[in-house]
Amino acid sequence: MESNEIREHFPIFKRFGREGIVYLDNAATTQKPTEVIEAVVDFYTNYCSNVHRGVYRLGEEATEKFNKARENIGNFIGAKDNEIVFVRNTTEALNLLANSLGSKLGEGDEIILSNSEHHSNIVPWQMLRERKNVKIKFINSKHTETIKPDDVADLITKKTRIVSLTACSNILGNINDMKEITNVVHDSGAIMIVDGAQSVPHMPVKVKDIGCDYLAFSGHKMLGPTGIGCLFGREESLENLPPFLGGGEMIRTVTKEGFTCEEIPLRFEAGTPNIEGAIGLSAAVNFLKRIGMENVRQHEKELITYTMKQEEENNIKGLVSYGTRNMDRRAGIYAFNIGEIPKFDRENLSDGNISLKVQAIHPHDLSSVADRTYGVELRSGHHCAMPMIQDLGVTAATRASFYVYNSRDDVDRLFDAIKASVKRFGL
Amino acid sequence: MTDDEYINSEILDEHFRTPRNFGVLKDCTVEIIESNPTCGDTIVVDLKINGETIEDVKYITRGCSISTAAASMLSETIIGKTLKEVENLSKAEVLSNIGLRLGPARERCALISYDAVQKGIKKHLKGGKEAEHF
Prior knowledge:
The structure holds two protein chains of two kinds.
Chain A: H1 3-7, H2 11-15, E1 22-23, H3 34-46, H4 57-76, E2 84-87, H5 90-100, E3 110-114, H6 123-132, E4 135-139, H7 149-155, E5 160-166, H8 178-187, E6 191-195, H9 207-210, E7 214-218, E8 229-233, H10 235-239, E9 251-254, E10 259-261, H11 275-291, H12 293-314, E11 319-321, E12 333-338, H13 346-350, H14 363-374, E13 376-377, E14 379-381, H15 386-392, E15 397-401, H16 408-425
Parallel strand pairs in A: 1-13, 3-4, 3-5, 5-6, 6-7
Antiparallel strand pairs in A: 2-8, 7-8, 9-10, 11-12, 12-15, 14-15
Chain B: H1 5-8, H2 10-17, E1 30-35, E2 42-50, E3 53-61, H3 65-78, H4 83-88, H5 91-98, H6 104-126
Antiparallel strand pairs in B: 1-2, 2-3
């Protein structure tokens, strides 16, 4: 399917007509095709019931569809169905791990993260540090570089227990080689966790190829509904993992004295799950399978390559962009600034060194103008990656991120919109 | 789509390009640092309070046009006002002074200086001068 043909499946683009909107905030969430919307509606219209327990027809139908969804999603990343735990999103998956794996850690044990992690792969570990006094070490890569196996090896010690890294930075678009990194981590005996929020939706991902112990991703970033995501865990890893939340669905027996746990993956799914979410995500997976994940990756690689070309040709004064220039290692994510607003340094500002005239356009201003002139929807701010924003030495950045329905025309409109904001707020 | 009040707002432009009362107040009685979680912008607001009256205010920010212009307009509004008057100033009045229809994200930009001032008054009433850490 070409991007024009793909767009036909998304009712939201019809709402805004021909001139319409250019939606470029796909790293935050994606639009939903009719197939996904209908799968969710179908559940509520035709077979709404709770899963696992009811022995009546509706309950059996709902359970069957829910289980099939798990199998289908597992298959998509090369996992068995009992290796897929349904959670709300990547954030919840990583919190589950920080709690359950964290319960086995002791004072002085080390966790390795990187400076390009999303807050969801930083804060749960910092919360664990408050409980357990573990040590967190950061790989500090330059924005132009992907994370290399050597960067990880340099930080590994005998005390390293967990390495948790993003497969693809949500702000830089840098794609890290998780297979090679996992090999280094496993050689040391540590556990490898992959944040797949920006990789699973955008490129072929097979967990057996990577060899990681855990991988987390969100449904809504890959055409699925919000509120559904997955934690993949290798069968033997999940078997040894303590439960996270307690309650219904996750138990085998409960007495006044105690409880026994259900088998994996239900052991990690306390309470009624997001049934329609899982079924909707399965429909999204089918949609992506029809396009083919190799084609998804190829399409986005072409768009980001074209973006680099447009950046060069337009030669906009003051434009600075971030991320690797190696397109083989770059996802469809383009973060940039028009002039850089330095990070707020109160001491410098108070010492009579107040420079009011910053030669820059604030990302919020740029995004508002882009939206209101050319209908280009961009993200502005810190992108839930404040440590990287700090390392870039700025307060914020603007980000465009592509998906299957975007085209070269959208990239052209992006640069028209950037030029419009330069005209409005000028340097 | 280009005929837009935000794109064409002269008052926004004027306050953004030449913000009033910008700077540091060396003899302030209270200082507040406030951040906008949406974008990481920060503002430092210094208030000089004498008895019941706000005698002077200065601020430093490197925020967007709306947060800078809003801080500028707010500073003009509150100088000479009593603490009670400023405490009674509503968010709606501040937004209406700016005169633009803003979405919830940009409203936060417009209100960061307002939040800082309100916190500053509370802090003053409790009797502290040191800046809160952000």
